[in-house]
Amino acid sequence: MGSTEYQVPCREKEEYANVNWNELGFALTKTDYMYVMKCCEDEEKFSQGILTRFGNIEICPSSGILNYGQGLFEGLKAYRKEDEGILLFRPEENARRMKMGADRMCMPSPTIEQFIDAVKKTVLANKRWVPPHGRGALYIRPLLMGTSPNLGVKPASEYTFLAYASPVGNYHKGDLNLVVEDKVYRAVPGGTGGVKAVTNYSPIYKAITQAKAKGFSDVLFLDAVTGKNIEEGSACNVFVLKGNVISTPIAHGTILPGITRKSIIEIALSFGYQVEERAVPIEEVLDAEEVFCTGTAMVVKSVASITYQDKRIQYKIGTETVAQKLYATLTGIQNGVIEDNMGWTMEIY
Question: Which parts of 40-136 are beta strand (E)?
Fold first, then answer.
């Protein structure tokens, strides 16, 4: 795929929130509005939603989300173009993934059109919080939750969809140093590892906390069946490069089908790389030339080192890596600097 830079006319200067854009990390900055819509037992679909001021919500102590973890979330970003326009990146993919997850969790979900409309309205209502071009993005977090009272073990009778937003910068600052976790598993076959269930994340907090206490950036998990193949990081997909071949674990139920992952595969193929989605043994990872992680929050980031059974392997990082080439192309499309020949971006007004 050729990367074509092009010029666009300037628009009127936007009003921005009072934020130090240069200091943004990946943490909540409270914005102005959130979007809420509901689906009740006697209805087959979600009703028209409303924008409301961002703030705490009231929820029954016996709700399905609080008692049984019946909930999903998504994550996507809005980007500021050089001409002050705003782009979403593949929001229909997030909508489809939420529908897939809702089916797994026995929940209704918004239609693709409702999901995209909710995201658009959330972004436009918080337009002043979209960072200036090249200095971050507005992260949008859609939630789908069982919110009716539910003492027994059964699906909820009422569901709430909520979308809020926060300006964000880099998810990981500095080098990315991983440690392989061989005692705790992120997901098991037949479980919910392939969807963004809220219950997927807190069970791995202990492994992450212990890794960070030892100076590592994140954990690389292995498969629960053999303990020999890599799966994911705590919140990212993993790729391995050797020669002209880029390999990544196949998203077969224990691995989340990441939208950044999908996009990077398509970009790599357009560059002429051979991409293999398959089981990737840890021994192969240790012999790789490059390893990199992808995700909405992470974007694309090279792995500097992986430690496995007290053995530390270092990898190529820096501006000349394949990972950096993929990152530059992806972010160029997302920010409107490179022409979007893929049809991935959506400008919103």
Answer: 50-53, 71-73, 76-80, 86-89
